[in-house]
Amino acid sequence: MVTLGVASVLLVAGLVVEWTAHLEPVSLALFWAAIIVGGVYPLRSAVRAVRNRRLTITVLLVVAVIGAIALGVVEEAAMLVVIFSLGEAMEAYATDKARGSIDALMELAPPTATRLTHGDRTETVAVEELHPGDVVLVRPGERLPTDGIVADGASWVDASPVTGESVPVEATAGTEVFGGSMNGNGVLRVRVTKEHYDTVLARVIEQVEEAQANRSGAERFADKFSAVYTPAMFILAVAVALLLPLFGFEWREAIYRALVILVVSCSCALIISVPVSVVTAIARGARDGILIKGGVYLERLADIKTVAFDKTGTLTRGRPALTTVIPVGDLTEDETLTLAAAVEAGSEHPIATAIVAGANARGLVFPAAMGARALPGAGMDAIVDGRPLHIGRPTAADRARSDVGLVVSQAESEGRTAVVLRDETRALAVLTVADQLRPDAQSTIDELRALGITRVIMLTGDSTTVARSTADALGLDDYRAELLPEDKSAAILELRQTHGLIAMVGDGVNDAPALANADLAIAMGAAGADVALETADVALMADELDRLPAAIRLSRRARNNIKINIVLSLTVVATLIIAALAGWMSLTTGLLLNEGSAALIILNGLRMLVPGRGETRRKQTTPTTGHGPRTR
Predict the structure, then answer these.
(1) Which one of 134, 147, 158, 310 is the catalytic residue?
(2) Of 78, 138, 213, 419, which shows the fewest CB atoms inside 10 Å?
(3) Quick one: average pLDDT of 60-71?
(4) What share of the chain is helix, strand, coil (3-state, %, to 5)?
(5) How many whole angstroms from its chain centre is CA 271?
(6) 249 or 99, which is more confident?
């Protein structure tokens, strides 16, 4: 940049002297100085290329400058050097701007941390000095220095810069947190779980850097085209210089036109037309918690027409929740639920957890149970207020009762799990639990269909009844149930043959074989799963399903951007070459138009850094219910 600045000043000074004072020796000296200063780096690059037996755009420029000097048009030679160097600087700026999002990610994690020592003393240390087991103090408004588990304290944490998660999460003892997240209004003591180089943020940065080297078909086409195009333009220029004199042109005019062809064919636009769009799209996605691991996957994401989803943990929350409480005796719903929660309070079974959570959600206070014991496969026994109670799966006697049996049968037909609360003599109530659909599952399916996804399929290991209920609720095109991991993998292979390009969306762990056989592997909630982050082609860092349509929109916008850039660059080059052959422009005019087209393509590519419609995170600081940030 310094040499460019000096060369620019020398060129402007030469032009001023030439146009005002008309001192030709002085202006000529200034033009020569501009060529010498500004031509150092292009000359070095051209020499390296020639040594490696490559014809590059810089080689074409150097030949054009030497030719211009040989023809005595030193002023134009100086302009060529300065304008071309300015174009190179613009390219560097575009690349730096595109990679700026990744640099911003790198700056999220603070360089130092407050580590707690014996006696709650603190010391400030570099993040690199933190090791698993250390405890760091994070004050309100500070960024977390590394990944860890909250050991003490309560606050809310905004992880959106790392995961793209749209709502701050409540952080209490036992909550997993990520380096680079912003702490809210409480003081946290966080126990470090990973080395600084193995945090989620560090791995995301590494994956994005690798993604930029993972080239798409469009990028490979641009490279191949450039490898043929540059030598072809050199041959065309030589042919013009040699052949035009045979048709009556002066040799000076023929050489000048040949030099103009070299200049206008030095198209930076052709080289950067694809990479600038790919890099900016990947950077844009990384900002919003969508990690796309290369141009090839960005391109493939835009072409997907069939999407297969795992069910548990992907379309659903992955944990049961209380759905209904139906008394069959003289107790009310709340009285029944209070007794059921008291019995289940000592159990860690998912159904028990769902019932206790349901009671807590209603604000019910249940008494302590005495003599609680788990009966494997049968439920729980306990004494509540001196009353022996049992809760468990329906028995044959329960099913034989018309009131209980009807409720149980209806629940099971809808894919819910029923348990019966009873005392020593009779059934008191039927409680049902079910894995709940994600709140954004239906809207995501609708958005996918609006984007032209022709088939949405579910692959699950759950029972056929539950799978059918989920598929009907979401309006899916097909489902397959009771599948083992190897069955899912086989199903993906079969679906690929039937429906073509297919994406598989799962958690990246249980679905690993199916993800591996899909054309595009998409992992949900990858921030908390090492395997998902490593194995997926596209990783949705937050546990938010609506990031999938946003990723598809981003990829399609990038594809359109690439097409516009390629067409624009080829049109400009073709027009300039025709004009050069006809002798309609000078060396300086040709290069100015050339670099102008490159600037236009750079600006078009950088548009990808601005989110398009449907790509922006629906950011909110608290949920609409007003109960504070949600928990994971």
Answers:
(1) 310
(2) 213
(3) 79
(4) 55, 20, 25
(5) 25
(6) 249
